[in-house]
Amino acid sequence: xxxxxxxxxxxxxxxxxxxxxxxxxxxxxxxxxxxxxxxxxxxxxxxxxxxxxxxxxxxxxxxxxxxxxxxxxxxxxxxxxxxxxxxxxxxxxxxxxxxxxxxxxxxxxxxxxxxxxxxxxxxxxxxxxxxxxxxxxxxxxxxxxxxxxxxxxxxxxxxxxxxxxxxxxxxxxxxxxxxxxxxxxxxxxxxxxxxxxxxxx
Length: 201
Hints:
Blueprint: H1 2-27, H2 34-45, H3 51-58, H4 62-65, H5 69-95, H6 102-131, H7 137-158, H8 169-198
Helix pairs in contact: 1-5, 5-6, 5-8, 6-7, 7-8
Family: Belongs to the PMEI family.
Pfam family, one: PMEI
Keywords: Signal
C-alpha cells in the first residue's frame, strides 16, 4: 500500500512539475491580474456541462491557469484524474470489507476495473496536453477526445452492476454519488478540451 501511494504521489508531482515548466515557457514570467484570471475561469466554465462544479474545482488554481485555454483544460483533466484515483482507493478499501454483501463486492470489482481504465485514459490525456504544440494540435486533441470519451463510458459502465433489487439502496446511493461526481468532472474536462480545440479548428 505504501509503495502504491508513493507511486501515485510521484505521478502527481511529475504532472505539477510539467505544468509549472509549461507556464514558465508560455508566460515568460509575466504577471496576470488575479481578477482577470478568475473572470477567465468563470467565463470558460460557463460553457461546461456543470458550470458550478467547474468553478468550484478550478477557481482555486487561478494563479496557475491564468488566462490560458490549454492550461484550464489541463487543470480540469488533472483534477479529474486525482479525484478518480482517490475514489478508487476508497472503493478498494470498501471492497475488502468482510461485512460487504457478496453481490455488492462482485459489482464493486467490476466497477474498479472500469475505474482503472478511466485512470489510464485520463493519465494519457494529461500527458498529451503537456505535449501539444501549434504544429500537432489536431491529432493530439483528437486523441484526448477519444480517451476522455472512453473514460466517460467506463464511468457509466461502472454503475451497471449496481442495477436491480439485489443491491441495497444504501450501497447504490453511496457508490453512484461517487461515480456521478467523477462523471461530471470528466464531462467538464471534455467540454474545456473541446473549447481549446475550437480555437485552433
